[in-house]
Amino acid sequence: MLQVWSEKYRPQKLSEVINQKHAVERIKAFVEEKNIPHMLFAGPAGVGKTTVALALAHDLYGKEWRTNTLELNASVTPDTPIMIRKNGKIRRINFGQLAKEYFKYKKEKVVKTEDLEILSLEDNYKIKFIPVSNISRHKVDKIAKIKFEGGFIKTSLNHSVIIINEGGELVSKRVEDIKPNDLLITFKDVLEGSKKSLNLIEYRPQIFTKLKENLIVNSKIKQIYLNIKMNKEIAWLLGLYLAEGCSVLQNNTRGQIVFTLSSEERRMGAKIQGILNKNFGLISTLETAPSGFDRNNFSSIQIRANNTQLARFFKDNFYEEECKKIAKFKRVPDFVYNWSIDNRLNFLKGYMGDATGDWKDCVRFSSRSKENLIDIAWLGRISSLETSCFEREARIIWKKPTSFYALTNLLPFEPFAKLFEYLGIPKAKYFLRHQLYGKKSKRISKKLLKKFFVNALKSKMTLNQEIEELFNNCSKLLNSPLSVVRIKDIEISNCYDYVYDVSVPGIEMFWGGTVPILLHNSDSRGIDIIRGQVKNFARTRTMSDVGYRLVVLDEADALTAEAQQALRRTMENFTSVSRFILICNWSSRIIEPIQSRAAIFRFKPLSEADQKKYIDRIVKEEKLKIDKKAIDAIIYLAEGDLRKISNLLQASAVLGKKITEDTIYEVASQARPDDVKKMVEFTLEGRFEDARKILQDMLLRQGLSGEDIIREIHRQIYDLKIDEKDKIKLIETCGEYEYRLSQGSSDTIQLEALLAQFLVFSKK
């Protein structure tokens, strides 16, 4: 796993912290006495608040700092697949799609949810939908892509995954601490659905047509469907439609369903005709059709059935919302997840039209739609099938072939080896060690473990209290739908975007990934997290000589009002065994009762000299070459944020060892000051078209966001050679349009309108 420079060059001790001497010296004194108060760190982003908090933990606890410190603030990327149940309906969705439904304003960080559940895990290891209390988000600049057997998951670097420790317990582990060959938790189980019919009511045609002043019955309507009772045949037909079907609508009034098969599949064509006739009362045609590549080669057959209602139904449900109705955007309809297990399996059998292999052996589905492949993988997992998802295909495996891609029900070796050794079961540990599936990851099959567990059950009556918990943990795992997969690789990349999390009260876990992986609920903003995870950690006594544990809450100013009140009570009740460090940008957003209980430290932006010192350190260590103008550009863009400095340098270094000013602005994806200055000057001189061309270039060719451009416009106003009163009016106008952009308005329209306002102002 390649190290991110912002972490690589993060100080590990208070003595290594750059600047912030006014805060660091006071904190050092507390650490030396091993008696720190509750603290509130306030200041701009990237000036060292989190660094100082973690350095404090290092100095205070030494090597044991991780076990004595709880740090909260982590999330997963917007394209992370999850499964939810909303208003009683199961959906496979991404975090970004879910966010669009709940976040109404750009600057919202936390939103409450109602009637929303996410697929999670109960205490008894039963796979179940658990209520979500809120969704949160924050921006990051680096993410980790964790590739494991059968799929991948993308998270922020300080997110946590759930693992099984040597005691057989489910515990969280930070992404920055995991490495290849570590084991992640997955599952396969039966989640029985309740939907027993196909609802076609909303697609029914108009029964009456208007003729002059009278309504008459539409004679063209042959069939109207309301609720069709689901059965295996219909499920199979809908699966086949996903693979081989399409719908044609002419003027939204005449519709046709078409299935295209190879010329050797006439028996399947006859089966389709039979199902359409038996279940929908439709008479269909079967005819030969030309190849899509050679129109003179009639190598396929088509089954066509005329019905506008069904054509509308298929078009609305088998493609991504708001996307073109083409194969690239095909999806498994949401209602399929809500079916019974038998109907889901028959849907997958029908989808064999896009697959190779044999059912109940090994099947490989191919699709141009990546989301569709993820759908298939998740659908299989909740139908007790072993699935995996790759770049161009999804797989289902029943038997255990010698194939490298075969997934099996494997569990970690250590907890069971430890248990059998305690129980003195003859040869168990020796035998199991030689039956491992992969020596590096040390896994063993459930089938093999159960053979030895019979002897463990016989010995259970003689267990002492020390081994009882290990026995129960192993037994629970062995009888659960859980298994483990090996991490193959971890990639770090730039992000510069929002990441998301959900609050799952009482459970603090949920499933996510291209195939489901158990993730830790890391959101630290909701009342349930304060009452649950924070309270449980804070009330537990430490074994260290310090005498108390440390809770670090990043972005504490995003805590809800209810969460802050709960935090206040937790701080009061457990001061004897815990201390709190709250990190925020604006202390005014922290309630007064918390501020009065904490020592407040104000962190200032770093000086230009300190920033250059930090840049020189990285350039020297990484053996880079950098222009003076590039250094000036970094300092201008970073605005005292050391994290941004290290990320800009790392991103630029990928393009070459020589870093120039152009390289910096290219990787920063921010507006160049010279371009914005010229655009504003052109506008004030009355050269609107020239200014508009620069704006269009920044938006379209450079791909800059409206907020980035308007932020630079605001900075350039101060350098304009105009009267101070005029600057104030322009800044006021900027503020109005920046607010409009924050509400989701069009970047192009609003920025052109802003330039128009500048032009009108200049003529006055």
Pick out its properties.
single chain, 764 residues, alpha+beta, Endonuclease - Pi-scei, Chain A, domain 1, Endonuclease I-creI, 6 domains, five-stranded parallel beta sheet, 26 helices
Give the strand line-up of the largest sheet: 2-30-31-1-32
**For this structure, what is the CATH class of the largest domain?**
Alpha Beta
Mean pLDDT: 85
Number of helices: 26
The CATH architecture of the largest domain comes to Roll
Approximate strand percentage: 15-25%
Q: What is the general shape?
A: globular
Q: What would the CATH topology of the largest domain be?
A: Endonuclease I-creI
Overall description:
This protein is of the alpha+beta class and 764 residues long. Helices cover 39% and strands 24% of the residues. The chain is built from 26 helices and 34 strands. The strands form 11 sheets. It has a 5-stranded parallel beta sheet, sandwiched between helices. Strands 5, 8, 9, 12 and 27 form a 5-stranded antiparallel beta sheet that branches. The chain has a 4-stranded antiparallel beta sheet with strand order 4-3-6-7. Helix 5 runs parallel beside helix 9 and helix 22 (673-684) packs antiparallel against helix 23. It is globular, with a radius of gyration of 31 Å. Mean pLDDT is 85; it is low at 401-406.
